[in-house]
Structure formats: structure tokens, C-alpha cells
Model the fold of this input.
Amino acid sequence: MPFAVYVLGLAVFAQGTSEFMLSGLLSGIAADLGVSLSAAGLLTSAFAVGMVVGAPLMALFSRAWPRRRALLLFLAVFVAVHVAGALTPGYGVLLATRFVGALANAGFWAVALSTAVAMVPDRLKGRAAAVVVGGVTIACVVGVPAGAVLGESWGWRSAFWAVAIVSLPAFVAVLRTVPGGRGGTDVGADPVSVRDELRVLTGPRLRPVLLTMALVQGATFCAFSYLEPLLTRETGLGAGWVPVSLALFGAGAFAGVTVAGRFADAHPVAVVATGMAALTVGWSALASAAGSPVLTLALIPLLGLLAFGTGTALITRVLGLAPGAPTLAGAFSTTAFNLGATVGPWAGGLALDAGFGYRAPVGVSAALMVLALLVAATTAKSRRPRAGERRLSAVNRCARGRRGSPGERPGTRL
Done:
């Protein structure tokens, strides 16, 4: 695996810390800025909206640029907005910086995913994608709990300063290691037109996969965004358990990404189907068991493993089905991933505001997984050949078996 792929994972670690760290800072932000808990939760949604909008726009914006230039620009903007967010006295400015930071993060993600898979052979594309996504899981293990500790000790602004500082080594590493070819394409390859890429990505094979990814990530972010109030106000754990729980979720997520990177290339459908079914059961179990500290702490790492393992397998599936979209495949994967991150916290906030209690977001996560399973089942059923088509296919296979495949001499088949 090229070292530059791991560098991209390092940069995603810094950005992933920013994306997820608010789950441990919501109460502090709400109290400091004088807003409700659900309004503070919208900061996560604002970041996700920027990711959804920014992924395709930034990928197109940087399409003709060298990869390294695009990645460095996005990182520089990301650092600048976090400095601005740490200094702002108002909720509106913080909301704006989250959106702009997400645009930069989305551009980085889109170029990084396409760059990583372009630097490795086909048999390693799943692992390359897993290394990039793995930066997010390491952020959950290390960065997000550290942000929660900083927020508890020195206020939520210290976490924003930490993200800006941690991003600087990533900037230097990208500058030194990432090749400078045009974004999303292999060096020397002919560019693919935007129209051709969009035709691939909006075709019938990819639309249901992207929708399924959005629903799975919606379920993940819905519960994860409100994990802190669930633990402290429903499970009965003290504030000191929040970073521990976030670290447990991140450790499970890292394990899930690692496993998915090993098996998603060879068995993508099996990994996705198994993960989705298990997540449906898992979110339902957490909603039921949230009053028990032992059961809750046991389920959190398992759900992290399932959520990010399934998400990584879905990203690998999209990239594998879209070789004709080298620039926008990563962007559409990022958009679907973060469309779920937009809808999830919003839906969880609605459930909280409606008075359904702190377990409600987890129940919404289970409902979103049921929808994801329905989409997958409907798609599989629509693609299943009719009886007549199966008979014709069998006849054709028999005929090919008697004749041999094109270009094959008679008698050479075993």
C-alpha cells in the first residue's frame, strides 16, 4: 500500500474529529451560546449539509487541478474556519463556519477517495478505501474522546483549536507524499467527461446502493449525535463516561473498517446484507436496553463495528460499480454518506422535541435501518429474473458449454 494512502487517512482523521466531536460537546455549546440542545445538534446537521452539497461541487471545482493542490487548498480552508469557530461569540457565525468547513472537508474526501483507489491495483481498492475511512474511525477512538475531555476541562472552544493544530502535520504530509496528477484520474489517463460520469452514477445499478448508504449512515448519525444526552440523562452514567463511550464506539468502528477492508472486495453483497440486518437488531436492542449501563456499554462498540463496517463496504461497492466515474464516484459516495448524516440528527432532534424521550433517536435509527432493508430487498427482487428468463439463461449456458466460449478450441473445457 503506498504511504500516501495512509497520509490521506491521517488528514481524514483530523477532519473526522471535527465532524464527530460535537456529540460530546453539545451541552457545553448550548449553555455557552444560549441555544437549545436540538439547536446545538443542528451544528452537526449543518456540517453534514455542507458535505452533501460540497462533495460533487468541490470535486467538479477541482476536477482539472493537480491532486495535491486540491487537497492542500481544502485543508487550508478547513484550518482557517476552525480558528474562526473557536473565536466566534455567536451561534450564527459558528453555524456558518461549520458549513464552510464541511465544504472543504467534502472536497478533500471526494479527491482523497478517488486518489487513494487510483494509486492501487484492483485487488487493493477496498483496502485503500478502508484506510481513508479508517481515519474517521481513529478520530472516534482518539480524537472525539479527546475533544470531549478538552471540552469538559477547558470548554468546547479548546476542541476547535485542537482540530486546527492537528491538521497542520497532515498538511505537511500531503505536501510531501501525494502525487500531483489531475484529481480523480490516473496519471496519463484520458479524462472522462462529466456527462459520462453522471450517466454512470445515476444509472439503475448505483441509485439504490447510494440510497441504502444514505439510510444506513442516517441511522448511525441519528443515534451517535445524541449519545451524550442518552448516556447522562437516560442511562444514568456520569459525564466522565461520555469520552469512554465515544472511544468504545470508535474502537468498534475501527475494527469494522478493518474487517470490511479485508472482505468487501471479494464478498461485498454478503458483507453489506449481514451488516444491515445486524444493525437493525442492534439499534433496536440499544433503544430497549438504554436504561442499563452494562448493556449499553456492551452494545456501543458492537454498533460502531457494524455501522462503519457496513458503511465502508457500501463505499467500496459504489467505487467498484463506477469505474467509469473516476472524479465523481468518491464525491457521490461522500454525498450519500453525509446525506444520512444530515437527515439522521435532524430526525433525532424532531423526536426529542416531540417529547418522546432520550431513547427516541435510537428508535429512529432502527426505523431508518428497516427502510434501508426494504430498499435493498425491493432492489434485489426487481433484479431477480423471471422464470422464462431463467430457463432461457440456462439454455444459453448449456449451449455455451457445448460450443465452448468465444475463441476457445473444442475440447479444451474441463
User: Anything to note?
Assistant: The chain is about 80% helix and 0% strand. The chain has a mean pLDDT of 79. Residues 125-154 form the longest helix (30 residues). The CA atoms of residues 393 and 408 lie 20 Å apart.
